[in-house]
Amino acid sequence: MTDLRELQHLFRDAVFEETSDGPALQAFSKLINDSAGLSAAGHLRIYRGAILGTLTRALGNIYPVCKRLLGDQFFDGMARIHARNTPSQSADLANYGGEFGDFIASFEPAATLPYLADVARLEWHWHRAFHAADEAAMDLAALNNVPLADTGRIAFRLPASARLLDSNFPVQKIWQVNQDDWQGDQDVNLDEGDASLIIWRKQYGMRIDELDSQESQLLGAIDNGALFNELSQPDMGLELDTLLPRCYQQGWIAGFTLDA
Predict the structure, then answer these.
(1) What is the pLDDT of residues 185-223, one digit of tens each?
(2) Domain containing residue 58
(3) In a domain? residue 105
(4) How far apart are CA 252 and CA 69, in angstroms?
(5) Closest CA to 168 of 200, 198, 199, 192
(6) Beta-carbon neighbour count of residue 216 at 10 Å?
(7) pTM value > 0.85
(8) Are 93 and 54 in contact (CB under 8 A)?
(9) Which distant-in-sequence residues (6+ apart) come within 8 Å of 260 by Cβ?
(10) Is residue 157 part of a domain?
């Protein structure tokens, strides 16, 4: 007798295999009954269409700019391929789609749009920032009360909503001109230069802020867990006396802990 785990894996394979009458669908069809008007395989195809359709719509909702750039038909076809290759691992569809940018980067039919993968990564960061938990501002009094001997152990942290993105393309401009309410210049020069961005939510307002090289280096190091002692090393080249206050005032530094 087939156990529950084997049944679940077989059903998953039947839903996500590429061919319409593949071996997994045929095998699982033998385990269920036909109905008066529909074969067992027909029932499974209904499930397959519903599940893949749901995941495709979820990706379209999370990545509207990518969908606009590609057109509905191309995007939906690409999204269905991604859904087959990457089933959801969560019951919450808000958690689905984080690998889509990497998938696009390796998807040969989209190779003529080399910036598309980073646009997708920006949209995913926007989506996750929008759904991130609220948080209070950093306690400056607590920071000022850290003993001098312990300052090297300070580990600053970014806002819970914050995501960093570096791109070789002006992805913020591409994203911006493809918003429904955009009324400015529609032209985007792909040679405008690299982009270093922080995507985050400030209270109830979503933000995409451009970072200069020092800001990007500092926030990247903080995001990777660097302690104050490491940030202040001469070889880092960071002007912390002005850089830290500026990043705090912008809201990009939201708290700290003391490393054990």
Answers:
(1) 888 888 887 899 999 998 889 999 999 999 999 999 999
(2) 1-97
(3) no
(4) 30
(5) 192
(6) 19
(7) yes
(8) yes
(9) 153
(10) yes
3-state SS assignment for residue 256: strand
| DSSP code string of 117-183 | HHHHHHHHHHHHHHTSPP-PPP-HHHHHTS-GGGGGGEEEE--TT-EEEEESS-HHHHHHHTSTT--
Question: How far apart, in whole angstroms, are the C-alpha atoms of residue 13 and residue 82?
Answer: 15
Rounded CA-CA distance 13/19 in Å is 11
Q: 121 and 246: one domain?
A: yes
First to last CA, the chain: 53
Inform me whether the pLDDT recorded for 46 exceeds 80: no
Q: Per the structure block, which two tokens stand in for 22?
A: 């593949």
Q: Which of 35-51 are b and which e, b meaning 16 or more Cβ less than 10 Å from the residue's Cβ? A: eeeeebbebbbeebeeb
